[in-house]
Amino acid sequence: MAVSSPVRKIVVSGALGAVSIVLVLFNIGFIPWFAGVSITFMHVPAIIAGVLEGPAAGAVVGGIFGVTSLVKAATQPQGPIDVFFTNPLISVLPRILVGVVGWAVFRLFRGRLTGAAAATAGVAGSLANALLVLGLLVLFKAIPLAVAGTVFVSNSLIESAAGGILTLAVVSAWKGIESRSGRSRLADEGS
Amino acid sequence: MRSLEFYRNVSIGQYIDSDSRIHRFTPATKYLWLVALGVPAVAATHPTVVLLGFAATLALGLAAGVRPGFLLRGLKPALPLFVLIAAFQIIFGWPGDRSAVLLKLGPLELTQRVLGTIVMAIVRTISLMTLISLFTSVTTEGEIAHGIEDSLSPLSRLGFPAHSLALAVATAFRFVPIVAGELESIVKAQAARGADFGSGRGGPFKKTRAYLPLFVPVTIRALERAEALAEAMEARCYSGGNGRTRYLVYETTTADSWARAAAVAYCAAAVALDLIIKI
Questions:
Q1: Rounded to two decimals, what is the model's pTM?
Q2: In this complex, do A140 and B205 lie within 8 Å of one another by their Cβ atoms?
Q3: A138/B84: higher pLDDT
Q4: Which end of chain B is more exposed for a tag (fewer CB within 10 A), N or C?
């Protein structure tokens, strides 16, 4: 992988941070599932930043996402669960690590099988998000362990798969990875 | 999608324009007070300490001309959560809880430990919600970005990239209206083609795939714009970091110095009080 310049890392972090802010502010990053439960992909820009520009970019985008969700939870809570996220140790700290985990898993593939590496990074980053947030909710006695376990099994595993799909789609489009249906057209489009 | 017109006015938080003393403090002073009030609210183990921070936040809000009702307006949607927290704690309890039983309703028991946990969770949440609400009421987006660099400048001497972090945050704020505009165009285009963005039938994978035509173009367009901006900055020999001047410089006044000292003193006193109550 080509080494990215510091300026590029900063600007890409800002751009993906903006995507994260928009997803949080407009409540777009939710996929309705069953019984009123939604799975979220708002953390995926942080994983993409980690995969494309390294751990610092992943941490910055994750931090921006975390702080935005904290501000949103405090100023415009949409539902009961939002209010837990007024605690920065629950809303910000785990999100900083999401992009770092995504980068670390992507690096394990050492530049080979880029598509598989991106998908695995998306799954691992999403799992890290779920485990850390639920773990800290239990630690702060917001929810009992039994509830956290139920949420993890019913929600987080599907959420991780969704994270993998979306990370793979964006990284493939950006890097122009060949697929069965040919090279992604988005990668060739001008700005 | 509930509406296609929700991207018009993008704002983070709820800044209230005023010329109060609190508004005139430098961003670094506001960040310091945010940390000074936030640390006890997160880490304190006794509700008295958290409530003290809550009272201090409301007092600062009044000094800034921000009504308590405005700061607390986010609590209304949170009320069901407080009932939920109490229900979770009572139904599931905590393993090995040997504290005194205060109330017994059939198989459900309200113990002293469970009551303490419920009270702490609620006062902590209210305190943090009010604090963040006040911070965003008295701090503009520009101050939030610049304040990061000023607040973390002591760490930059140890190699921490405070300037880069502040630039990334400032870039994010500048990109938000652009990304929101792109999103609106794509949502409208996809909706015109009959896209349902996951609200239709099908399993989670099918619904995730339905979001691809929205998420992928928005992210790719943001990356393309970032690439163009990075090239433009590099073409102008931007290197950032040490020795770089800034258009907007915040003067630290005597009032700022006193306010910063008061923030440190408050935080130390709150932590000490928590330790004393514990003993």
A1: 0.79
A2: no
A3: A138
A4: C
Looking at the complex, report in whole angstroms how far the Cα of residue A61 sits from the nearest Cα belonging to chain B. Answer: 9
CB contact at 8 A, A169 and B110: no
CB contact under 8 A, A26 and B183: yes
A139–B contact, CB cutoff 8 A: no
Q: In chain B, at which residue ranges do the beta strands (DSSP E only) sit?
A: 101-105, 108-111
Give contacts of B131 with chain A, Cβ < 8 Å. 74
Over residues B252-278, the mean pLDDT reads 92
pLDDT at A190: 46
Q: Give the mean model confidence (pLDDT) for residues A53-75.
A: 88
How many Å apart are CA B167 and CA A56, to the nearest integer? 14
β A30-32/A38-40 pair status: antiparallel
A148 reaches B (C-beta below 8 A): no
What's the pLDDT score for residue B2? 46
pLDDT in tens, B192-217: 887 766 555 666 677 777 778 888 99
Say whether pLDDT at A76 is over 60: yes
A17 and chain B in contact, CB less than 8 A: yes
Smallest CA–CA distance, residue A41 to chain B, in Å, is: 9
Alpha-carbon torsion (B121, B127, B131, B132), positive or negative: positive
Residues of chain B with C-beta less than 8 angstroms from the C-beta of A77: 74, 77-78, 129
> Contact, A21 vs B172, CB < 8 A?
yes
Which residue among B176, B212, B226 places its CB closest to the CB of A169?
Answer: B212
CB-CB neighbours of A95 under 10 Å: 30
What backbone phi and psi angles, to 5 degrees, belong to A39?
A: -105, 145
Q: Which residue has the higher pLDDT, B185 or A49?
A: A49
Given this model, what pLDDT does residue B103 score?
79
Query: What ipTM was reported for this prediction?
Result: 0.85
Cα–Cα distances in angstroms (integers) from residue A89 to residues B18, B27, B91, in the given order: 31, 22, 26
| In the predicted structure, residue A32 carries a pLDDT above the cut 70 | no
- Do the Cβ atoms of A31 and B208 come within 8 Å? yes
Q: Is there a contact between A26 and B211 if contact means CB atoms under 8 Å apart? A: no
pLDDT tens per residue, range B230-259: 999 889 888 776 667 777 788 889 999 999
Nearest to B229 by CA among A172, A115, A35, A16: A16
CB A117 within 8 A of CB A172: no
Nearest by CB to residue B176, choosing from A12, A22, A161, is A22
Show the domains of chain A with their CATH numbers. 6-180 (1.10.1760.20)
